[in-house]
Task: inverse folding
């Protein structure tokens, strides 16, 4: 508050009076009448616009009365309450969605254990949020840009990011698209239009607004979707992004995964008021929908509608998907220390998004126990084979330490690289050089 | 208070224009106009370029740097923003990732601290972290370093801060030609460039040659410039303080000391070669910066000279910096905390006399 106030004062005091006086007296002031006249006249117009609120002689303190309802169409038994709202995907499409969810679940279980064995340094599971990933991803176009937080692996898989892509990144081998420069789960890929995941929380929100502003400037019929958790929404960047998107009217979908836990902080300690959705309509004048995040069809319908609004009306939309983080935050915490097993099981068993879709498929006669077993077994094999293979690959070339700091290496970078290579040539046996790509070539001459 | 500002600014302005008039002789412009013309030309040249910041459009910028650009290019490319530095900095990063070339104006770099995560953690590292696939061609620009009479929170130099970050290029121009050539290079560069201006320089006048007025006039990033040749001592400075360095050289000349003045122009990548070459000739060095001394640009130059030119040094390097205190407001205290030309003269004398 102090800095804002002082800035306003600075602007009023320093810029208008002092600066003008200073520049005038130095005979250097660029008096530009046309634009100033125009800007005042447009300001006048704004003043004449009618206030949208009413004046009242009742002194009344306003409180939260109306909670935004949560849209859901399919219950845990897989029954769609309003058949006309069933997106009616074909059998093949639904099976693809289901197997992607199941594969993600299987991969998460294995890679979590693999981290525990010390074969990768870090991992984050998506347990309980599979319907959000696949439901929202299916509603987007490949030309839409994605900014993710870190727990959206299913979104990437739906768009064609393979198990190999994921595991190569986690093992940081030479096939890792990020050249071994980021922690596991920080993916980025041109192929699936995913901007590189960034560790500082919520910076992806204003950046997504920038991306969608660029889409708007270019006249594209695309939008940018940005995923984030309810905890991330407490960062100042959330406000910055929401306010800018509304003010600049950008085609942005803000997709909040409200999974009730931000590491060990429950959502009831994260905010008061009506969750994240409650901030949308009144706070930012933004179209907003709250949705059952464990209902894949509800998530699909909502994201589809949000995309339509964003692209056709060129304005942002906020979605709050209510769900539950069944797994730990990451491999760096143990969630049984801060929440009960009963709570976890109530969601894991009572509201499981995967079994909900399976029940839907069962009603249609599209799925059997044998198929279930076979899919799980096949996913396990794929993940294990991919892992074994990834571990055998070379690590990225030693030269990749120095590339891409700038578009072209600076003299200081070239100097550093030369020093390292000379050192390695002197002491080749002291380093596991055979693990890195191109080592022989680099150290040859 | 206003008169105290004028007293401070006017004399150096006079000194400055005298020097320049003697060197060139074609068109006299202010630094403000030099920046404005470079922005205008680059906006016209590439439609991917846009400007975003507080007050930059309708109001023509808090310091009138963007004067006339809103009328010429419209609200889609000259964008006024809500007062949230983290917001428009983040939007700049995202828009650059999506293939545009944003110019983000901070009303002063003091306010950019509210957005520094986007500049350092995102802008500087995006290219590297994406495996070289995503570029972040942004110009982060605005006034930097102490103006006058605005107190501790508006009077810092951030050259050393940004200069320490790999992935960023950092430039701090002095003359009108520097401002034009470096800004145009920065806008066309595929890397993020922090472009540090000086509020006090905006009204300084310099002459531009025909070549320097050309739309294709570019100053390469990473190259320092010898503004004045000399043989007894090298004085290195950047941004506004280069004027004081030249003034000091003139005073020293009257006393028989020949000072070489290097205008650093780029903080990162730092042109150590030009300084080393000068040092080989003069064997003495004084660094001058308006920021604080600890871990400053002068400290970096001193360390580089130890590594690359130790055998050429005939005297310890002297660093002239702003006083190691938050900037006081009262004009007498402020003057005492800021570098005066005499400080540079004294330092040059100390290093040259040591050897006699």
Result:
């Amino acid at each position: 508050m102090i800095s804002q106030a002082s800035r306003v004062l600075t602007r009023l005091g320093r810029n208008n009076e002092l600066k003008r006086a200073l520049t005038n007296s130095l005979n250097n002031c660029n008096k530009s009448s046309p634009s100033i006249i125009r800007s005042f006249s447009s300001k006048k117009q704004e003043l004449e616009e009618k206030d949208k609120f009413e004046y009242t002689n009742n002194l009344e303190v306003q409180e939260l009365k109306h909670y935004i309802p949560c849209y859901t169409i399919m219950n845990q038994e897989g029954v769609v309450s309003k058949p006309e709202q069933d997106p009616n995907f074909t059998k093949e499409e639904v099976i693809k969605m289901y197997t992607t969810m199941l594969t993600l679940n299987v991969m998460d279980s294995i890679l979590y254990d693999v981290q525990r064995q010390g074969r990768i340094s870090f991992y984050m599971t998506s347990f309980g949020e599979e319907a959000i990933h696949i439901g929202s991803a299916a509603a987007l176009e490949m030309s839409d840009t994605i900014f993710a937080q870190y727990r959206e692996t299913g979104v990437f898989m739906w768009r064609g990011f393979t198990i190999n892509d994921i595991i190569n990144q986690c093992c940081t081998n030479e096939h890792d698209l990020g050249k071994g420069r980021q922690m596991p789960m920080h993916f980025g890929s041109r192929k699936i239009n995913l901007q590189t995941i960034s560790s500082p929380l919520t910076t992806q929100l204003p950046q997504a607004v920038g991306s969608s502003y660029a889409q708007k400037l270019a006249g594209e019929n695309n939008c940018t979707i940005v995923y984030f958790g309810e905890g991330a929404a407490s960062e100042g960047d959330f406000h910055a992004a929401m306010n800018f998107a509304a003010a600049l009217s950008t085609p942005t979908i803000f997709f909040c995964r409200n999974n009730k836990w931000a590491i060990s902080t429950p959502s009831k300690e994260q905010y008061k008021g009506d969750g994240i959705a409650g901030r949308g309509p009144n706070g930012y004048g933004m179209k907003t929908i709250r949705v059952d995040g464990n209902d894949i069809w509800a998530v699909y319908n909502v994201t589809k509608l949000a995309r339509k609004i964003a692209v056709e009306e060129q304005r942002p939309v906020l979605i709050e998907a209510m769900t539950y983080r069944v797994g730990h935050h990451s491999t760096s915490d143990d969630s049984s220390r801060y929440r009960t097993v009963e709570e976890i099981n109530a969601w894991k068993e009572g509201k499981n998004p995967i079994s909900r879709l399976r029940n839907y498929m069962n009603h249609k006669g599209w799925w059997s126990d044998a198929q279930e077993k076979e899919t799980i077994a096949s996913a396990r094999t794929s993940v294990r084979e991919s892992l074994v293979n990834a571990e055998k690959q070379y690590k990225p070339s030693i030269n990749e330490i120095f590339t891409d700091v700038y578009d072209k290496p600076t003299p200081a970078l070239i100097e550093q690289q030369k020093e390292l290579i000379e050192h390695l040539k002197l002491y080749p046996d002291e380093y596991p050089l055979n693990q890195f790509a191109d080592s022989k070539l680099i150290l040859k001459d | 208070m206003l008169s105290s500002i004028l007293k401070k600014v006017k004399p150096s302005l006079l000194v400055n224009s005298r020097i320049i008039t003697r060197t060139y002789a074609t068109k006299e412009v202010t630094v403000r106009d030099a920046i404005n013309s470079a922005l205008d030309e680059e906006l016209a040249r590439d439609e991917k370029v846009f400007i975003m910041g507080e007050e930059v459009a309708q109001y023509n910028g808090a310091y009138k740097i963007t004067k006339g650009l809103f009328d010429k290019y419209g609200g889609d490319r000259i964008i006024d923003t809500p007062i949230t530095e983290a917001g428009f900095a983040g939007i700049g990063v995202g828009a650059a990732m999506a293939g545009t070339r944003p110019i983000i104006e901070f009303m002063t770099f003091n306010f950019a601290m509210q957005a520094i995560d986007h500049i350092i953690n995102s802008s500087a590292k995006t290219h590297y972290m994406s495996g070289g696939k995503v570029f972040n061609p942004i110009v982060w620009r605005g006034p930097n370093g102490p103006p006058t009479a605005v107190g501790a929170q508006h009077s810092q130099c951030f050259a050393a801060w940004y200069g320490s970050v790999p992935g960023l290029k950092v430039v701090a121009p002095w003359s009108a030609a520097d401002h034009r050539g470096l800004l145009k290079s920065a806008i066309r560069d595929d890397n993020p460039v922090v472009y540090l201006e000086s509020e006090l320089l905006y009204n300084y006048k310099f002459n531009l040659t025909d070549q320097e007025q050309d739309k294709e006039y570019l100053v390469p990033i990473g190259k320092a410039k010898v503004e004045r040749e000399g043989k007894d001592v090298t004085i290195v400075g950047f941004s506004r303080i280069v004027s004081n360095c030249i003034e000091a050289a003139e005073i020293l000349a009257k006393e028989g000391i020949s000072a070489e003045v290097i205008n650093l122009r780029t903080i990162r990548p730092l042109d150590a070669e030009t300084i080393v070459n000068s040092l080989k000739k003069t064997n003495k060095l004084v660094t001058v910066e308006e920021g604080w001394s600890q871990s400053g640009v002068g400290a970096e130059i001193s360390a580089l000279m130890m590594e690359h030119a130790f055998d050429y040094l005939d005297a310890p390097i002297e660093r002239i910096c702003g006083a190691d205190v938050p900037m006081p407001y009262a004009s007498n205290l402020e003057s005492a905390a800021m570098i005066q030309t005499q400080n540079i003269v004294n330092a040059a004398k100390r290093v040259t006399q040591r050897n006699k």
User: Anything to note?
Assistant: The two ends of chain B are 45 Å apart (CA to CA). Residues 225-351 of chain B form a domain with the Rossmann fold fold (CATH 3.40.50.920). Chain B touches chain A through 76 residues (CB under 8 Å).
